[in-house]
Amino acid sequence: MTKGSKRLLLINPANGYRKGYLLRRESKQAPLGLGIVASLTPPEWSIKIIDENFRPFRYRDADLVGITAVTASVNRAYEIAALYRKNGIPVVLGGIHASSLPDEALRYVDSVVIGEAEGSWGRLLEDFNHGNLQKTYTSGLSNLKNALPARHDLFHPGYFFSSIQTSRGCPMDCEFCSVPAFNGHQYRLRDPMSVVDEIASVPHSLLYFVDDNIIGYNKMAEEHAVAIFEGMIRRNLKKEWFAQASLNIIEKPELLKLARRSGCRMLLIGIEAENADALRDSNKKVNLRLGVDNYKKAFRMIHKQGIAVLGAFIYGMDSDTPEALKNRTRYILSSSVDVTQASVMTPLPGTRLFEKFNKEGRLLCHDFPKDWQHFHFSDVVFNPARMTPKELAESTNQAYRQICSMHTLRKKFIRTWWNTRSLRSAVWAYNSNLNYRSVGLEKPSEYRY
Ligand code: SF4
């Protein structure tokens, strides 16, 4: 705990139902949102951050508890909230799930922060001090120009990576994605030099940029990325990093070079599917514009800079059939994608996809909030359009077995090394594949579809 007269406990709960998300707890991401909330908290508060993904939860006394949760972990958040409320300690819930369903959250907590915390956290603490905590706190999207760096000093030092955020928002509108609903369609950018200062201040040599697209989709976002990469190079920070980007990176070869020089080892690209019908299903405009035929060229350009490609794929688009999914798996195995993240289509509350499935009566889960624990991208929680839920579950499990076999991973390691000419990037990719293997091959639970 930091020193102060009042005690604030910030908690990131885990989805206990599906716990094999990553190979080692140290590979997990520190809960950056809680570090940002801590930075917004005045010095009279002592702050402790607990990440249940990193070590088991143990009850600690506090004056105020703040919990963040995604849909898959919200049920656990409600369980933890009950422990504190039983003892008369008020609990505030924030994050993407509570922002989408504040009425549900208010049945389990005292107060809900809807949307980004920057505009309301100070007000909430004032109200708490006056014994006048409100049910909800809402503020618009915050201006990130003067955003404070997260309180990395409050995270357990055992994480391998430091998480850094440089921007928020996405102008795209993929049907399944909750980012535009939560962070808006407009890019908001942090001051690049303050980002570089934050990077310089963290002790880790490995970084994860949590942005949804580190290079953005317009000139301003591109210049922002250039300023950060050049800043890292100029200050000789010697960090290695991983980020999410989109396929449009192939239109910016100079930016790719700078990314590599600043330490980029791997880029996650939302490929989603290898055929245009499935991309149309989810409104994946950028991939449609660049064309599935250009995927190969894109991977080659990224590899040429010594950077590995982490391809994110979705199983369960409306045009998908068991045969189409076999083709997707074949594509993944034969393509030069180095690491595969294969997710079952999951309709998160707050997305257009959730609204659609709800309206069409296609949701398979109805016992909420308990059933939210299945919304973690591995269970089938809806009725697919052109196959049964069981067929989707079996197709996905079959894909996991093939994509995550040790034979495939060893082959991919050699291929990544060959394509990138970088042993470091090949090791990054191999370790990431081992992480996904532990997710994908986790023993099937009692719930399958
Ligand atoms: S999936 Fe990526 S590109 Fe699509 S809306 Fe979400 S953040 Fe934007």
**Rg estimate, integer Å:** 21 Å
Task: Quickly count the domains.
Answer: 2
Helicity range: 25-40%
Largest beta-sheet characterization: 6 strands, parallel
* Mean pLDDT reading: 93
How far is the N terminus from the C terminus?
42 Å
**Molecular shape:** globular
What ranges have pLDDT less than 50 throughout 5 or more consecutive residues? none
Description of the structure:
By secondary structure, the chain is of the alpha/beta class. It has 2 domains: about 5-140, Rossmann fold; about 160-345 and about 385-440, tm_1862 like domain (pyruvate-formate lyase- activating enzyme, Alpha-Beta Horseshoe). It has 17 helices and 14 strands. It has helices at about 30-40, 75-85, 95-100, 100-105, 120-130, 180-185, 190-200, 220-235, 255-260, 275-280, 285-290, 295-305, 320-335, 350-360, 390-405, 405-420, 425-440, and strands at about 5-10, 45-50, 65-70, 90-95, 110-115, 135-140, 160-165, 165-170, 190, 205-210, 240-245, 265-270, 310-315, 340-345. The strands form 3 sheets. It has a 6-stranded parallel sheet, with helices on both faces. Helix 9 links the parallel strand 11 (about 240-245) and strand 12. Helix 7 (about 190-200) packs parallel to helix 8 (about 220-235) and helix 8 packs parallel to helix 9 (about 255-260). The structure holds iron/sulfur cluster (SF4). The site of iron/sulfur cluster has 10 residues, from helix 6. Iron/sulfur cluster binds near residues 177, 179, 212 and 246.
